[in-house]
Structures are given as C-alpha cells and as structure tokens.
C-alpha cells in the first residue's frame, strides 16, 4: 500500500540509496541522505597499544576468501535508473546506485577483511564494531591487477578485529546497468501497442556475479540472510527472492516523478549466487492451483495467454517434489518471469526463477511439441533446484554436479508427473546419457567431482557448466537409483535434504545418507565404493561380453586410443538378458574380469538393459551378428531403448576401433522397418558424424542415396499427417515425423524438398495464413531457405524481425543459417555483432547454427578467430561458456590443415585469453586428431559400403 509522499530533489535522489531507512510504522521512505547519516555515526575508536602478536595482513594465498571473517546478514538497497538520468552524470541513463550493510562475525584475530567487488564504484565504506558501538578507521583497496580474484580488501588501521567479534560493514556504491547479461543488467523489448522501447532491469548472479551488484562474500558456502529494498519508478514492479513486507511499497516524489520504495522480507539463509532482482512493467498470471505462485511476462504475452501452460504445470510439479523429497517448498510465494534477455535458458534463483521467453512461454498454434517439452523440462529442472542447490548447496563449485546432476535427473520425473503420455523417462537416454557418453570419451574430459584446488577462477567455474556436469551427473544418479533400488534412493535423498537444509554439502554427505537407506533395507551395496569411481575418475568403461567363453571384462573407453591406455577400473552395475530366456535379467557388479557360464551361449546376449548403466557394451563378433540378425527379423523383441543403444554403441565402438565400421553401418539397415523414435534418433545422431566427416568428399553422394533409401518408408509412414498439416498422436511419434522430413529433405528426396518449398511459398504469398504445422516449422523453413535464394532469406529475416514470439524467432533464426548463399551467411555472421539485430544471448548459438551448414563452417571458424577478443570480452566467465562455441564450430574438422589452425589459435591466445574455452579447445584438438586418423583408416571402406548398399536405392 502507498504511504505518505515525501518530496525531494533530483540531486538528493541520486544519493538516497546511500542511506538506511527509518522503520516507523513500517518503512516509509528514505528521508535522510548519506551526509546526515555520517553526522550521526558513533565516534571513531582511538587506537589501542600495539602488541607483538603476529596477525595476518597480506592477501589470501589463493583465489578463495580466507574465512577469517564470515557474513551473517545483509541489508541491501538498490535503485536502478532505467529512464531518468542521474544528476551530474552526463549522458548516462543506465546506472544503479545502492548500499549494503553486512553484519560480520570475526573467526580469528585479523587486520583485514576480504570480500568480492567487481565493476562497482565505491562511494563510501564504514566499519563498525558492534560490540563496542564505535567506528573503526579503515582504508580499502580493490585488486584491479588481478581480474580473477575481484577482492575488495578492507584494512583496519591501528586496530585488530577480535576473534568472535561482531562487526558491521557499510558500503555505498554505483554501477552501470550494462546489457552483458551478468550481475544487475538491463534488458529491453518493444511494446506492441505503442511501438515504444521498454527497458527493464534483471539479474544473473550465478556463478560469480553477485559481486557486480554489491560488495559481498561471493562464495556458495558463505550463506547469510538478506533483506533487500528496491527503489524503482512508479508504474514498475520490483521482485526479488522473498515476498514484499506487509507494509508494502511506499511512494516518494523525485523531481516531480513518482518512485516506489519496496522492502522485501528477510530471506532464509542462502548463497549469494541465487539472489535475484527484477524491475519491470510486466504483469502476471497466477497459478490456478496454489496461492502465491505467479508467472510474469510482457503484458501483451500475459494477455495473449502465453503464460497459461507454465502457470498450469508449475504447481503439480512443485507438489510432486514436495512429496518425493518429504520437505515442503519453504516459501509462501514463487515468481517465474520470462525475460527478453537472459544468458542461460533459465536460472533457479530461490523464489524468483528467471527464464528466457522461449523456456517459459508456450503459444498455442505457434510453438511446437518440442518447445512444449523444453518448457516443461526447464520448469521441472529449475523447480528441482529449489531443493537441490537452494535449500542444500554444494560447498564449492568443484561439486556443482550435486546441484545440476540432481536437477537434470529429477526434471524427467517432474515432467512425467504432469505429462505421463510423453514417456520422458525413456528420453533421458537420448537427451542426457548418449550426449554425456560422447563427450566423456575424450581424454580431455573432466571428472564429475574435480579437485577443489583445480577450480579457483571464474573461468574455471564457468567451464564446469557443461554436458559432464549436467548430463553425466543425471546419468550416474539414474544408474545408482536402479542399482540400489528406487525406494532406497528416495529415502536416502529425503534424509540428505533434511539434514543439510540451509547449509552446504560435499558428495560424501550424499553417499552417507544413501548408504543408510541401503543398510535400512538390509541390502549389501557399498554406495561410496561404487560411486567414487564414477564421480572422481574421468570417463567410463566399455564392458565386453564374450559369448564364446562367457568372459566379461572392462577397460577405459576412449575414442582416440593410445599405446599407454588408462588402467582405470569402475564398479559397473550390469543387467543382461538372453534371447528366448523367460528368466529374470541377470544382475551383478563387475569389477575385475569374470566368467559367467550363463553367458556362454549360441543365442544372443544383451547387456545394459534399458541402458540404465553409464557405459558402452561390446561383444564378440558372433554375438553382434546375432543381434543384428534379430534387428532385421524381429526387432520388437529387443527393447526400444536397447535398439537405440546397439546403434549408438556400435558406431562409437567403430570410431574407437573396437569393431569394424561396416558392423556399425549394418545396424542401420533394419531401420526401414522401424518407426520408433529412439532407434531412429540414435542413428540420425551417429550418422551425423559421417556427414560431418564426408560431406566435403566423394563419399557424400552414395551416403545420401543410402539415407534416402532408408528414410523413404518412414517419410511415407508419416506423409498423410504431413500433407494435411496434422501430427501423430504420440509424443515420440511427433518427434520421429520431424526426423523423417529432416532426413528425407537433407538427402535430396524430391517429394520432400518440393513439399517444403511449396509450403513455404504458400506462406510467402499470404503471410496472414500459416500452412506449416508448428512441429514442422524448423525443418520446413530450413529446407525451403536452403533450396531458395535471397528472396526466401529476406522474407524469413523480415518475419524474424517482426515476430514477438520467442519460439518462432528461434525457429527462423536457425532457418536463416541454412542458406547456401555464401554472401548471405557472411552478412548473417556480421549481424551477430549487432545486438539490435541478434540479441546478445543468441549470438553464440547463431554462429553455431551457421557452422553446422557445410557452406558456412569455414566462414564461421574464420569469423570466430577474427572476433575472438570481442567474444572473450563479452562472454567469458559468465554462464554463456565460450567452450560451446569452440566445440561446435570445429566439429567438422578432419584435416591436417584444420588441426594446424587449431594449434595456431591455441598458441596465439594462450590459456588466459581462452578462459573458460581452454578445455574445449584441448578437446577440439584431440577430437580433430582422432577424426583425421579415423577418416584415413575408414574412408575407402565407408565409400564401398554406401555404394553397395545404395544400389537398390528407392
């Protein structure tokens, strides 16, 4: 509710955030300026006699805070200037001012306080001894020379901080609302009714950018209570993690303009990286299921009901987690907000989850089934974080997988609760397990749990937000759940969350609680012994089953095997089935080589049932042939997931030279008789490697002929749906319809390319009528633009610029990269440097799309090299990891010339310049070396196989 109005000048307003607030009948307004507060301060304590005791005075020996002083609570005031210029600051509108008072506990006698501050102009600092009620004389120093530590050092003059003493540190500061998607930043959108550009302020503090918002102890274990107050223009709404206090907002007048002072309730004990703040003119849609749950977005998006789906599914997922984890969601409110600009897809800030628009807003008739699954999965992921990460937090970033692995794994369970017909529990194998297996087969991968001393700088930390942390983390948790039993897994997780709520953990804490659940069920598994090999070692094993002699053994699987192979061993949960057997699956834990008499068989044996284990499986040649024969005669007798696994394992085993490449290709021959998504997606994904390696060589023609032959039955299976702009009933069938069209068109099936161009041209002729089903837009747009020229590209570009639906813009943005016109691709690359054309959050993915186009790959690589300094300045250290850019633009590299370019790029820039992309570049070099070797050894064999198998082309 509005309080009394207080009129103050514009000059005075610029300093109001340098004050604390009077609390008389609630917070009324900022009625005292910083100068008045300074006059009322307690006297400075006189110096005490010096002692001979040695007190540490130097900087910390590492990038970590020394821990001599810890925060207990913060009071933070922030005022963003989105439209109104601050007095005495020329031509500077996008600023924020603020102050912070942090109450500290001194853990040991000290002369220094170290905390973090980055890109802030410090206006005032005051340190108060709360026990003695006096101010202490201090100086401060910001370490500008070390861009990694970001330390703000407070030096106490003529005084020593007492052990167990209580202190208060006040800082007043000023910062810029950049558009860099980090810290406290600005975003913008165009109001659809007026055409006016509207600005908003938002935050992204993970992993290390809370220090860009206010001076703080910016480490996850430095948890504290936060009391936030936001001063913002009338007509806007401020949100933060906790709800507004009961007193509500109060109005002040600054130079004739109305501003609101909005105080928020004190948070629970929490880490700095999950703080969040937004100031916008957005409106909200409440959940129909539970009070206090709201979805926020641009007013026109809310009015058009784009928030309906998110508002409908949020509470059922939240309540499923409450039951599953045995702990109620601890807040009485949850805001989810769709931002026009956000670095990651979404961020789990406690009580205020931020999303990209494409990750939260579903537009009926425009968004696809893929978009819908993405939205549901992202919402479920971020809601899982309210427990895994927010309530219970890893102690340091080296174990971030405890946050992200759990959130990724639990998301599939959450989505299954609200969309049971989707069968997403099977899709985790395609989306997470296979992706992680591919990356973790490189020697330059990293363990799930890195050594703490190896993860120190912001770039080190940003580099951990990758497939290993998210997807491998989810995969090994899924494996563990199956191994110890889902009920024991649930009981252990409940106990773990309950003991460590509002505190920090290391992975040993997790193992201890899961072990207790196992013991309570009178089972014999040793959780830590099994899991430490999966989390502390890099990579995973290939398990070989020999049906000639019954032997089963393991070795470290690497795509690029060397003479000095790793001797790492894992404790591998094995589940197998046999052809024709009605017995229960055989389950055992493999460590060393064993002989199993039941595996000695002249019928096929299949290991890793439903691919619950994170490993690959190889067989003797005879068993492979029996399995392939089974696929070609009665494929449905092998589980759908395992049909996909056989294809995926065979192709990767061929790349690592465990099996002949023709055996891998033979696993795809049966696909003309299979209409299931998982086997087809496994094949499409793995054959994409062949396309990358050979689409610039004579292999490509026969390969296209073979793929046309194989996909035409699938294309015709879905054709009736396609021509009538309809979709199959099942979720995965809709995905496979997309596969059918994508593969058929990409490999020159004329019926498909003509259909794509026809639908696109019908749209061009009457752009008020959209004949293309939302599910098919991405592939139809892409293939029509690839087959067309400038006119098609310009039409799509114009539609991209004018669309207000994020999912539609994403489809068009991808399709624009499909043109074969070199000059258009070059121009499109240049557009990524202009945020008015391509938003900053989309620049990296746009370059990646262009690089996937064979016509654009060399252009994209040259562009990245030429603009590397720009990209490293704009993105490194933040949540948009440059490693993905390096990884994707070099996927096709398979020549000595390209390898030398990579090594030259590495030599030119060095680890400091590469930052978070350093590991990705090492992986790109390793992968390129393996590609060169593989192409030399397999090109002729592959060419002959495709020529032979394509002779009977459709």
From TrEMBL:
GO BP term, example: cell differentiation
Transmembrane segments: 12-34
Membrane topology of the entry: Single-pass type II membrane protein
Cofactor: binding details: Binds 1 zinc ion per subunit.
Residues covered by the Peptidase M1 membrane alanine aminopeptidase domain: 309-534
GO molecular function terms attached to this record: alanyl aminopeptidase activity; metalloaminopeptidase activity; peptide binding; zinc ion binding
Major enzyme class: hydrolase
Ranges of residues in domain Aminopeptidase N-like N-terminal: 71-274
Record's subunit section: Homodimer. Interacts with SLC6A19.
PANTHER family: AMINOPEPTIDASE, PROTEASE M1 ZINC METALLOPROTEASE
Protein name from the UniProt record: Aminopeptidase
Source species of the chain: Denticeps clupeoides
Upper taxonomic lineage: Eukaryota, Metazoa, Chordata, Craniata, Vertebrata
